[in-house]
Amino acid sequence: MMIKMTIICEAIEADNGLRIDVYLTRCRDDMSRSALAHLIESGGVTLNGKPVRKNHRVSAGERFVIELPEPTVSEAVPQDIPLDVVFEDGDVIVVNKPRGMVTHPATGNLDGTLVNALLAHCAGSLSGIGGVLRPGIVHRLDKDTSGLIIAAKNDMAHASLAAQIKARTVLRQYEAVVFGNIRQDDGTVDAPIGRHRTDRKRMAVTDMASRPAVTHYRVLARAPGWTHVQCTLQTGRTHQIRVHMAHIGHPVAGDPVYGHKKSQLSLDSQCLHARRLAFDHPASGERVELETELPPYFMEILKRLGF
Q1: What pLDDT score was predicted for residue 3?
Q2: Quick one: pLDDT at residue 1?
Q3: Of residues 15, 91, 142, 255, which has the active-site annotation?
Q4: Nearest-CA neighbor of 84 among 109, 114, 105, 104?
């Protein structure tokens, strides 16, 4: 008998009127919309004990129960998926991850992930500290956040990189387009982040069960109603930049979870790119500084908004 995992998502005011598949995509950003649509059609999503119809419109306060089957695989498998490798040697590999690629396998995304691609590219030579589903993974990027991500090829490199992240000596610098005009040229958001009070898939600025979170931002350019910013992480909490920018009233353009109708721009995901990464090489100790170009989707948004 297959074991199922139960997840509860409670809609809030900002979710009013959303179609159920769109709403669930916001709650489960680690699952594709097609996978969620299949769950809905198969009766895996219920409201008040009854299966939800695919055309259901969400109302604030509704509590949806999602039953997810546990993954049927015990470990990630290699897949020949093209990678944009920015840096690689015997200890580490840095990849420019495309928007839409999940970092590691999880329920709803058992293959096609960065880990699957890395296992094939590195011929299985990845650190084992992260476990069989997250080999080599030291940090992660959200599915729809593009940009630089580093993986460790051995346990020594993994331990070194994890220690550097903990010591906050790894530079992780992003660029984003955010809603509204930020008046000051630079600033810092110092606000603790924890799980949302009612929706466990969302993060929020909260004093309850939260962890310190600090984001430094700098304005790169302004256009009517929008700002192009550079964000540097001092800490690395889940969804940190997205939560912090929304907290100060400037959600990331296209963010389906923390944005609002005016910030969507008819996009299906956030305009957020991990552009710069710097770290001390685990073996040599030399500083490695890497930068990638802004991807086409990001450049198109800048052009569309008149930057």
Answers
A1: 45
A2: 37
A3: 142
A4: 114
From the list 206, 189, 188, the residue with the least C-alpha distance to 197 is 206
Q: pTM for this structure?
A: 0.77
- Report the helix count and the strand count for the chain, using DSSP H and E: 6, 15
pLDDT at 5: 64
Q: How many residues does the chain have?
A: 307
Q: What is the mean pLDDT of each run of 10 residues along the chain (307 residues)?
A: 64 85 75 77 88 91 80 71 96 96 78 92 85 83 96 94 94 98 96 80 78 95 97 95 97 94 87 98 97 96 95
Angle at 190 between CA 186 and CA 191, to 5 degrees: 135
DSSP, res 282: T
- Give the burial class of 283: count Cβ atoms within 10 A of its Cβ; 0-12 exposed, 13-18 middle, 19 or more buried: middle
Give the pLDDT of residue 152.
94
Question: Are 221 and 160 contacting, i.e. CB atoms less than 8 angstroms apart?
Answer: no
Separation of alpha carbons 307 and 303, rounded Å: 6
Longest dimension (CA), the chain: 59
Q: List the one residue out of 143, 151, 98 whose CA is nearest residue 122.
A: 151
Angle between helices 20-27 and 33-41 (to 10 degrees): 120
Measured at the alpha carbon of residue 72, what is the angle toward residues 56 and 136, in degrees to the nearest 5? 105
Backbone angles phi, psi at 51, to 5 degrees: -60, 140
142 in catalytic set: yes
pLDDT at 39: 84
Helix/strand/coil for 50? strand
